[in-house]
Amino acid sequence: MAQIEIPAAKLSYECPEDDTVLRAALRAGLGMPYECNVGSCGNCRFELIEGQVESLYPEAPGLQERDKQRNRHLGCQTRPLGDLKIKVPMREDYKARIKPVRTHGELVTIEDVTHDIREFRFRLDAPNPFLPGQYGLIGIPGVHGARAYSMCNVTASGEEWHFQIKRVANGQGTGALFETCKKGDRVELDGPYGNAFLREESARDILCIAGGSGLSPMISIARAVAASKALAGRKLHFVYGGRATRDLAGESMLRELPGFGTTIFYHAALSHATPEEAWTGWTGFVHEAAKEIVEGRLADHEIYFAGPPPMTEAVMRMAIENKVPVSQLHYDRFY
User: Fold this and answer.
1) What is the CATH number of the domain that holds 231?
2) How many domains in the chain?
3) Which of 162, 193, 224 is the last residue of a domain?
4) Helix intervals (H) in the chain
5) Which domain holds residue 263?
6) 242, 270, 272, 287, 293 from 277: Cα distances, Å
7) Tens-place pLDDT, residues 36-77
8) Which of 140, 143, 131 has the alpha carbon at shortest distance from 191?
9) pLDDT tens-digit readout, 91-103
């Protein structure tokens, strides 16, 4: 068991040899910054002051050459080889409301959502609750390194985690899930993680913007809003974008919720609609449609969004241009 010290913050915590610097900190209740948890965003970088470490992903895109020259490492991809002293800007807002734990689960259901999105439902060995909008790490048999996917269900007990996952071209993780995984298979699950969870304390209406597998956390948030007494009467606009009609999803799920059509509204936007599809709905990029749907009143909403990087970056730019406070923007970066 390694002892990790953060001298500037006057903090220390223990990290087992099979855990990472970041995840052990979060399990210990500390607020170490992070987002993607899989080596892509670089938000969990720390400077190694003293000690030796092992990198689980030496070519991780979240770490640049200049970072390596400055002895910086990614907390999510680094294991200690002994006691460490590190430098990292700890923040209260990254403290986990539900501390992440590791467990295992059995794949109990596989259902098609679209031509390239499937829902995978896992029953956990030990109940593990999460907040709507959070994600977990799945250790897929035969695939090196865990993959991060957002949950789509709402659960008080945490007995099951459901994921709506989009197949990625040439992706090892989604390739294994779609091609070789079957009911009864067992996986390692770790979480919950993520800070883009539903804020029930806000009195604002809600805008959810999604594309691709960003569907999953937005569905979780919508389901939680429909079930929340604290959010009774809040309007929720759910805007989902795709290239063609076969990419669209989510409406049937929202129709099952109380309040659909009165406080919960579904909108779809196509960026590449063809004349053959006879599409009469919103056209263009999903963030542009979302702005029109709320009549430009973006700052009056809590905005949750998830999807491909170009989409999330466009939403962020639009929000900043329209003077939406950063505190009202909720998303986790994935690449």
Assistant:
1) 3.40.50.80
2) 3
3) 193
4) 21-27, 65-69, 172-179, 215-227, 251-255, 286-293, 309-321
5) 205-330
6) 13, 11, 10, 22, 22
7) 999 999 999 999 999 999 999 999 999 999 999 999 999 999
8) 131
9) 999 999 999 999 9
